Structure formats: C-alpha cells, structure tokens
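hey so i finally got around to running both of the ones u sent me last week. sorry it took forever, my laptop kept dying halfway thru and i had to restart like 3 times lol. anyway pasting them below in the order u listed, first the sequence line then the structure token line for each. didnt double check formatting much so if smth looks off just lmk and ill redo it

first one:
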Amino acid sequence: MKNKSVISIAILVLIILGISGCIDNNQNATNTSYQTSNQNTGTNNTQNSTSVAISPAEAKKNAEKYIEEPGATAGTPMLINTDGKSTYVVPVILNGNQVGEILIDAQTGENMGGAGGVSNSV
C-alpha cells in the first residue's frame, strides 16, 4: 500500500511539472508597444532596453509617404537610440542601391528629416 502512495505522488508531481512546462507565459500579444534590446559588448555586459510606440512596419509605411524619387521604395527600418531618443532609420532604395534615408520618430511616427530623394513634408 505504501508503494502505491509513493508511485501516485510521483506521477502527480510529473503531471504537474509537465503541465507547467506547456504553459506559454508570453504576454507580448496583448502589449501594443514594441521592445528591442541592444547588448553592450564591453566587459560589464550591461543590457539597454528601449520601448517604442510604433513597429518597424509602421515606420516603413510612414517613410514611404515622403519618398519623391520615382521608382524608389522604403527599405528595412533600423532602430537606433541616440541620447535616449529612439529613432528608425529607413533607407530609401532605388535599383537595389540606397540613395537616401528617412528618420522616423519611434514614439510618434513623425518624419524627423532625411536626405536623398525624400521630402520632409507631405
């Protein structure tokens, strides 16, 4: 009888551990902000985390509004952090070459400037 109790408890523990391993604790689906992190390669290995209000896809869509060069398109945005301010750098691509860039504020989605075949006003 004692062996059955020990076996039952062991099985119960295994079931609980199995169930807890299957639960997905990822809460990002309900969070509307996008998070990115940059790791320092220095000796202290500190990690800086930046929360932004708009996604890279939204930054690209906003940048496309300012491209004036016929045939040019917005490339893949890159998030940079300068002096505590997050900004997307969106390259302007023409015939496979980068011909300029547009800076998009990662919090507001506003155009912060650019160069090469772009306009700062809609």
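and the second one:
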Amino acid sequence: MEGVKAIIFEDELFTAMNLKNILESQKITIVSTFYQGEDFLSLDTLDFDTAFIDIQLAGKVDGIEIAKKMNQLGKPFVYITANTESGTIEKAAKTYPVTYIPKPFNELNVKIALELLKPKISKGLKINGQTGKREINFDSILFIKSDDVYIEIHTTDGKITHRQLLKEVANELPTQFKRVHRSYIVNANKIDKIFKKKLLINGEEVPVSKSYEDVLN
C-alpha cells in the first residue's frame, strides 16, 4: 500500500510503536501518532488517508469521538481495542469502522485489516466500460441510483450507467457515502438540504426511506 498516509490514535507507547512498525513494513507512511484525541481536534489541517483508532484514549476525547470526526472528513478508519463491553462496542459500531483489530494484535491481524481498507482508500470508483477500465473520482460523485442490474452514477459532470448491483458497488465506496434508500447511495459531502423524506443534491431530489433515516443523523 505504498503512498498511503495513516495516523495512529493510541495511548500505550509500546502498542503504538508496534503498530507503526507493522504499518511501515507494508509501505504505509505514518504521518503522526496521537496519545490524546484533543491534540488531533485542535489541528487545522492534516494530510492523511486513513486512521487506526484505539477506543480508549488518554484525555477527555475518546476514540469514538475521533471516529465521528473521521466520518465528517470522509476518512475510512479501523478501531484498535481490547474493550469487549457490549455498550461500548454498540456505540463504536454506529460510527461505521471498516473493521476492528483486537488487542493484543499481531502482524496477521493488521494485514487482514489492511486488505479490508484497500478499496476504501482508493481515490476513485473503478468500473469496466466499453472502452476499458476507468476510474471515477469519489469527490465528483453526487449519488448512485440502482436500476435493476444497472446503476446510474450521477456525477458533477453528468450521469454514467454501469452494469453492476448497488450492493456490490457499496463495498467499494469510502465512508462519506451513505445508503439512504434501498435504491440510493449518496455522497454525504454533496448534500445541500435534508428534509424529512428526501435530500437535495445539486438540484436533484433523492428519496430517504424510513429505515435509513438514522444514517443522516
């Protein structure tokens, strides 16, 4: 995964160094390691692609709060945790991590997590077209609509029709993409207005079904 930039949130020095060494052996650049969540939230900007977050951190800001910030930034992340308390795990699950690395972890655990991260770190959605493979930048995608065995990818440059199931393409999208209807996935960063049963994105209305209303919260 050469070229990928990651940050680590871990308040145990040995664990942080162990994880850093494993990630660097996989050609990942560690931009920074944070022992407290407050240190990260106080920054104006930081260039990174993904994060590894311990649920329990030193200071008042825990890993779940950091994960919520990752969702706002559209950054995929992995939890590192020794916490098996059901209430904590339930809260953590609602922040949509790519996966969990249980403590104590080993190199195999980390490699498995990286394989799951790969499609989320990609800069664009890869599709096979009539003229060969192409990549659609995630930031240009407004929403994706299912139409039987086809999907309509609505972008800032127009609409692209592609033969693929919506549930298949969902696995290739980063965390800023949210399913709001059985037939629609939207780029949360592109939402202009939220109404009770619909969204407005670039002048187009997208329906929101009752079963997905909590996603928008």
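quick thing i noticed on the 2nd:
The longest strand covers residues 141-147.
anyway thats it, ttyl
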